[in-house]
Design goal:
This protein is an alpha+beta fold. The chain has one domain (2-143). It is built from two helices and seven strands. Strands 1, 2, 3, 4, 5, 6 and 7 form a seven-stranded antiparallel beta sheet that branches. Strand 2 and strand 3 (40-43) form a beta hairpin. The two termini are 22 Å apart. It comes from Pycnoporus cinnabarinus (Cinnabar-red polypore).
Length: 155
């Protein structure tokens, strides 16, 4: 995995922060190892309550309007795995050189990050309860126990 990620914020982001609300950020991501890769847009909404899901961070997906105001730009380099309906990404963040925009390799001591997502959006219905996807994520956590620290971390 070697991806470029650009993060956009809404025009009223500072007003939202001033009112005590974290704005929803739109993220654009492109895989750099695939010549024909297209940009993917996604967003992470506010995490659901830790009381409801203490084992993992659960967020709904959404999109939003954005202009060309760039909040930040990072590169992610690492590995992508699939397990059933899950996509598991293990990566280190690389910052962009302010002059060239190209990635600056991560320091060897940079922590590895792990994101586990469903390959397609999941709607919480009787036929496909959210608990099925959460159980699959927790199974990955069990498989990786001792290899990685996958404790819940709110961003």
């Amino acid at each position: 995995m070697h991806a470029r990620e650009v993060v956009f914020e809404p025009l009223d982001a500072q007003l939202q922060r001033d009112s005590g609300t974290e704005p929803v950020l739109l993220r654009a991501r492109k895989e750099l190892l695939e010549p024909e890769a297209k940009w993917l847009l996604y967003s992470y909404l506010k995490p659901e309550s830790v009381r409801v899901h203490p084992e993992a961070t659960v967020r709904a997906a959404d999109d939003m309007d954005a202009d060309d105001r760039r909040r930040s730009q990072i590169y992610k380099r690492g590995y992508v795995f699939r397990r059933g309906n899950l996509v598991i990404q293990m990566f280190q963040q690389e910052h962009a050189d302010p002059k060239t925009g190209k990635p600056i390799p991560a320091h060897p001591d940079t922590l590895w990050e792990v994101e586990v997502k469903t390959a397609a959006p999941v709607r919480n219905t009787q036929e496909t309860p959210l608990s099925q996807s959460l159980d699959a994520v927790l199974e990955v956590q069990l498989l990786m126990k001792g290899l990685l620290d996958l404790r819940r971390q709110d961003v």
